[in-house]
Amino acid sequence: MFTGLVEEIGTISKLQRRGNSIVFTITAPKVARGLRINESVAVNGVCLTVIGRTWRTFAVQAVEETLKKTNLGELERGCVVNLERALLPTERLGGHFVLGHVDGVGKVLRMETRKNSLMVWFEVPKRFAKYLIPVGSVAVDGVSLTVAELRGATFAVSIIPHTMEMTTFARLRKGSRVNIEFDVLGKYVERILKYR
Fold first, then answer.
1. How far is it, in rounded angstroms, from Cα 185 to Cα 148?
2. Fewer CB within 10 Å of terminal CB in the chain, N or C?
3. What is the pLDDT of residues 113-136, one digit of tens each?
4. Which regions of the chain does DSSP assign to beta strands (E)?
5. How does the average pLDDT of the chain come out, rounded?
6. pLDDT 10s digits, 3-33
7. In this structure, what DSSP letter does residue 129 have?
8. Which of 161, 169, 164 shows the shortest CA–CA distance to 140?
9. For 75, left (φ over 0), alpha (ψ -120 to 50), or beta?
10. Rounded CA separation 181/51 (Å)
11. Euclidean distance between the first and final Cα of the chain, in Å?
């Protein structure tokens, strides 16, 4: 489990294709130092298992299902990614409950620069619109954000300068594809009501 608060921006230093999967080696001295093999780490919001590490890098493997549902298959050597280690029970929960189980890929529609923030509009597949609520939580590339505006299957978030500095969001452009995880509570409520 994660909070959606990015700890470090890592760099993809190596990619190895193994059958229909990809092993990513990520350079991230801060995060790598605190990881052990078999631990979970969120890479652009995707929960992956650490399969190898050095003092400044770690390796994770994304299999077919993960590559199908996320934007990880689009990454290349030199790409940067948002990283977060798993939540410790002794830490404050500053974002929201993020599982690292990405629901699908969204797309940046437009970006509006404001005086002290950046408003970014995303489009998600229509089947996911039901999970968005005004002022609700959503994770975009692993970053915990609040829905500022909502219109059907499009939503906007307001990104403060600090978040721009601490995440890969400064590299977003119109058309960028991002991993989206909707708030788990809504998905559980939907499932319970369906079988009620």
1. 19
2. C
3. 999 999 999 999 999 999 999 999
4. 8-18, 21-27, 40-43, 46-53, 57-62, 80-85, 104-113, 118-123, 137-140, 143-151, 154-159, 177-182
5. 95
6. 999 999 999 999 999 999 999 999 999 999 9
7. G
8. 169
9. beta
10. 24
11. 28
